[in-house]
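Note to self: the last two entries modelled the partners one at a time, which told us nothing about the interface. This time every component goes in together.
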Amino acid sequence: MNPSELTPERARALFRAGLETPTSGFAPGYAQANLIALPREAAFDFLLFAQRNPKPCPILDVTEPGEVSASVFGGDLRTDLPAYRVYRHGELTEERTDVTDLWRDDLVAFLIGCSFTFETPLLEAGVPVRHIEAGTNVAMYRTNRECRPAGRFRGPLVVSMRPIPADRVADAVRVTSRYPAVHGAPVHVGDPAGLGIADLSRPDYGDPVEVGEGEIPVFWACGVTPQAAVTASAPEFAIGHAPGHMAVTDVRDSFYQVP
Amino acid sequence: MNPSELTPERARALFRAGLETPTSGFAPGYAQANLIALPREAAFDFLLFAQRNPKPCPILDVTEPGEVSASVFGGDLRTDLPAYRVYRHGELTEERTDVTDLWRDDLVAFLIGCSFTFETPLLEAGVPVRHIEAGTNVAMYRTNRECRPAGRFRGPLVVSMRPIPADRVADAVRVTSRYPAVHGAPVHVGDPAGLGIADLSRPDYGDPVEVGEGEIPVFWACGVTPQAAVTASAPEFAIGHAPGHMAVTDVRDSFYQVP
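The predicted structure of the combined assembly is written out below.
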């Protein structure tokens, strides 16, 4: 099984069968998405939160209450991601590979753009993506930047970090800025302290990655931000993906490219 | 009083004092916005409708329930537009210049991008805008294109039309495509029948405008679409602007320009 040769459907079948792995590098050329499913009564507040924070929360699709697939995702949202996190009153209570028995009729699922989507164009532009080379999960951090609140939802901006060679930073900006629906251009380049990140070697989510000689850490807004908002805001119930373990959609990366 | 020399604040003061006029050409350089205010219990469905139909319904701002101003609009949403339309169960029941006594604590106001915003850049690019020259309201039409429904909301796409000289159509596309937050590039160029518009001289909203020799009708998605959705979907209560009688915001046009 070579992740780079899988179709979205085949990748989802493997995850459904129990393969538990970060999805970076899987089914290249197809967009990946973050999941956050919330009860209908919290859905307006969250949709407004996403609307007000489009860099971390670019909405790709929203289901009707109770639906288990989406127009961009032909699979089953309850089984076809590699892993899930379940929150009750803001507490992370479980991590699982199947949430079929927890899916409620009143759950509205939000699919939110993921920066894994622009990694294929980055690689095609010759910009190295270290965590794919290393076969690890991307490093993600909670920052000291607060999102704009909406109704009951508030919380910090979460970012993903990729070390980029100094002479490729401009290319990384140029390429990713063409994909605003999957977080777009970086929110910060360089000193992690500017985002309140004390230690790059201790990410809040995912795996650490070394910043090599001649490289600079580059930070993009991250679709784990909704889960940080769930932690901060404590809605009664929520289901998210396990960070880095995304929904592989049926939509081509190029669909989300702007000129 | 020269509309082209007013600040947003001064324009709003005139409207508050009773001036009832279409706002095209007012306070040039500042973005204008469509208004639709709906009860909180319908707000999620509408926000999702807007999310699913970003060409006609690009959201600039959403208020908390009961608020009467917005981050993009320093005035009073109940008095500072030149005219309003009031809907009860989908029926247009009143047109007024002040809705203070009708504003409810549970109303959520959505401010939606308006194509008047890109008319200044059009004029600066030498593309004529006929209805400004004529001092009339822009011509708007319901089309045979259905929006993507969401919850209780469905309805047709509404468009605005500007006649453009054949050799300036490319410029009109190029300039307006830089402003996706205020409807962006045209949805249709040429034959009105392609949108199901039988007679250009009979717009559904606003004033007719002649398509001259050597000109072609160019159609942009229009922020009256939410009011057509109110008509089609019959929420219990809604307040919109009178078509063409917009909220003049405090935000510069250039804020909404993308590269």
